[in-house]
Specification:
single chain, binds flavin-adenine dinucleotide, 8 strands, alpha/beta
Length: about 325
């Protein structure tokens, strides 16, 4: 990607998150999304690790194929759930041997049916512990999760920030946030993180919304708030996917452009394996595929925001 600077920030840099497909049909959807977004020249793409570690092999296969066949730099998500340290270390080593150099290190959520998280016997206790373990395995680039609106298990915003600091001190070199809808929430969080001495990039996680009910459920589960204005914008559009997509593109691009105006230049998109809405938002931020399909970006990132189409059906 060549430089498309945000008004106050550095060169525009995007990353895209995918999940490993479960069926042939889902695999087709994933590869369509990867192929559509690849020309935008992401800094990296990442592949999630299913709750409870259920997608271990599928995550591995998807990561190595995206990097091997498509030539994109790929990050593998890895959690502490359901495995002993030695097993997790072996997974990491296998990634290293396959040329994967970036891990998104996470604690993970409790397995289905359990309310609270308990470390696996002999397993890594939490993300901090996992980051330290990965550092012993190899010189990975390590990203961790951050929560502008506090993780639901955390007793306070200060405790949550202290936890993020521990993850960075253990060796992580980037944080990616949980999704949020109010740009100020992220900007305030960033300011607070800097005051406690967290200086690594904290990349905003952007979730383009077109299925409002589904996103409300996601938000409830992870402690993100859904502003009343957002609910109002999607009101009455349950049976109108076309208008929903236009509204969704407008909402997400406005959110990103507010962040860009405040100097943010890195964005991580939760694509849910659909490309069009993410592509449209990147376009509005100023990113362009270079001739010949290689990475490229033009403009100064100040293009007019306008509703655009996408087929994301979050
Ligand atoms: C960008 C991103 C990607 C994700 N990808 C995946 C994925 O692929 N697969 C998946 O299963 N989940 C994923 N998740 C969800 C994540 O696993 C959950 O949010 C999980 O509940 C917490 O993981 P963590 O790594 O933030 O945990 P941790 O940083 O370990 O902390 C979790 C909570 O416990 C508290 N805590 C931890 N240690 C202490 C301590 N010593 N004292 C007090 N409090 C403590 C923290 O404050 C925090 O509130 C992702 C989340 C994000 C933001």
């Amino acid at each position: 990607m060549t430089a498309a600077a945000g008004p106050a920030g550095g060169p525009l840099k995007v990353s895209f998150e995918f999940f490993p497909p479960k069926s042939e049909k889902m695999a087709e959807q994933l590869w369509r999304a990867v192929d559509r977004l690849q020309p935008l020249g992401p800094a990296f793409v990442s592949v999630t690790y299913g709750a409870g570690g259920t997608t271990r092999q599928r995550t591995h296969d998807t990561v190595t194929r995206i990097q091997g066949d498509r030539g994109l730099t790929c990050a593998a998500h890895l959690t502490c759930v359901g495995a002993e340290r030695a097993e997790v270390d072996a997974i990491a080593r296998r990634y290293w041997q396959a040329g994967i150099r970036h891990i998104v290190a996470l604690r993970g959520d409790p397995p289905e049916g359990e309310d609270s998280y308990r470390p696996h016997p002999g397993g890594y206790e939490n993300a901090t512990d996992l980051v330290a373990g990965l550092r012993r395995v190899a010189e990975f680039d390590i990203s961790v999760a951050a929560y502008p609106e506090i993780h639901p298990d955390s007793p306070s915003s200060q405790a949550d920030l202290d936890n993020l600091k521990r993850k960075i001190d253990a060796g992580a070199n980037r944080a990616i946030t949980q999704f949020f809808f109010d740009a100020d929430t992220y900007l305030r969080f960033l300011e607070r993180a800097r005051t406690v001495g967290i200086w690594v990039p904290i990349v905003p996680g952007i979730l383009p919304v077109t299925n409002f009910d589904q996103v409300s459920r996601f938000a409830k589960a992870c402690g993100a708030s859904v502003p009343a204005w957002l609910a109002h914008l999607f009101e009455g559009l349950g049976d109108d996917p076309e208008t929903r997509r236009l509204v969704a593109a407008s909402v997400a691009s406005e959110q990103c452009r507010r962040l860009q105006a405040a100097g943010v230049s890195d964005f991580h998109f939760y694509t849910l394996n659909r490309a069009d809405l993410t592509y449209a938002i990147c376009h509005m931020l100023g990113l362009r595929p270079a001739a010949g399909g290689a990475a490229g970006a033009v403009g100064d990132g100040t293009a007019e925001a306008q509703p655009g189409g996408g087929n994301t059906d979050v």
